[in-house]
What does this fold into?
Amino acid sequence: MSIQQMKNLDKKILVQLENVGVFQNNKWLVEDVSLNVEKGKIVTLIGPNGSGKTTTAKIALGIHKNIKGKVKKFTDKIGYVPQKISIDWTLPIRVTDFMQLTHNLNENEIENALNLTGVKNLKNNDLRNLSGGEFQRVLIARAISKKPDLLVLDEPVQGVDFKGEIALYELIKKISDKINCGILLISHDLHVVMTATDYVVCLNGHVCCSGSPTAVANNKEYQKLFGDRASTILSVYEHSHDHTHSADGTIKNK
Amino acid sequence: MFDDFFIRALIAGIGIALVTGPLGCFIIWRRLAFFGDTLAHSALLGVTLAFTFDVSIALSVFIVSSIIALILLKLQKNTKLPGDALLGLLAHSSLAVGLVVIGFLSFIRFDIMGFLFGDILAVSTSDLITIWIGGAIILLILKIIWKPLFASTVNYDLAQAEGMSPEKANAIFTVLLAAIIAISIKMVGLLLITGMFIMPAAMARNLSNNPKQMVIFSIIGGLLSVLIGLFSSLELNTASGPSIITAALFLFILSLIKFKKKSELKQ
It folds into this structure.
């Protein structure tokens, strides 16, 4: 590969969403979202529950098939940490088997990846017997084990204790620097995440606002959505709405 | 020394157990037990059509079961009925249509009991060739699609996101199920084929701690069921197909005892 090509790759857009949306059961799960994830950059999706964060990530990954708008993907090397995985009792599976779910890895690669997230000792454990935090660490280790170009992390530190949470975010940042991958991160831990992020997209069924972390934090729409105190980034996650949602997610008394 | 037909039955049974072992594991993992049943029921329609158009039973059953399986995949996407209701719908309608068609075939008499329970002792040499060549092809394809199929069994979204094309793997797997039912229906019969899928795999689950181990134990369990079942049916003069399933049940109960001990040791 020539130096010129390398330079092009460095700036490469990994995935591009153009006005995408999903319309299901007579309502929009998410509507009119546009964003790019570039190599070496971290894009964070934030927003309240049911705002379409996971849906947007799944659109980017090609999991949702019937979508409006366009998705362009420029890489096949993708690592994904889904929001939820449940392993059925009928399936006996150890951590080491799970590590090789979509790629073949040798012993060294498995141990290195597990070591990075601090769970090397769990290699031969039954996957179903891990605690929530341990399971997240294994999920992250698996996603980074093959050095992907694009990492999609859906609430990657849920269930991890506070100290571990910061360490894992630091690790994610370190990995993205080291293997120069692009990251699409979903989180509502604003206070921890926003500092390391290059670009924030604030969702609530549509893009409320987007931009650099500081720009978003000072944005009126964002403050409306998350409450005034959210503008001081280190505040506790807490928000009040300008409208309420009924149980099925439709907006009332706007 | 054994009669020739008994040796043929053994070879046929071993061939089937080698294939139902790994497929059975996936059936259990993916909670498809009732799905196997549905395919087996639809096989009756295939059998009657084979008589109507005078084509090979294995071929006809394979085509009908594959079509039913693919209709099911399509229906699952396009209707809001839950999976088990759809399975029931397809299972019973294809069974009923099969029986109605039999009614029209008054010019042919065939032993319906034979297809419900199978007759492994009536296996011919050409049946053996079908089982072993067909079985080898099924296992080969299963090996090729193993990774995407297993990944999508653990988590469909993850498999899709990381480029494993789970939809294709699922469709191929469904056709493989139809194929093994087609080549084994004459031996084990409609009502017992699901037992051959599920019981060795269920036994294997109690003994294993990783997927490959479970597949191996499932194959061993199936082989033992065939051997014990056939030899005891010879000794006790019982029906051979049900004897095989009874042997599988016996092995499952044994595995429960082992399983209990293992969990006690852990505690």
Residues 233-241 of chain A have pLDDT under 50 and may be disordered.
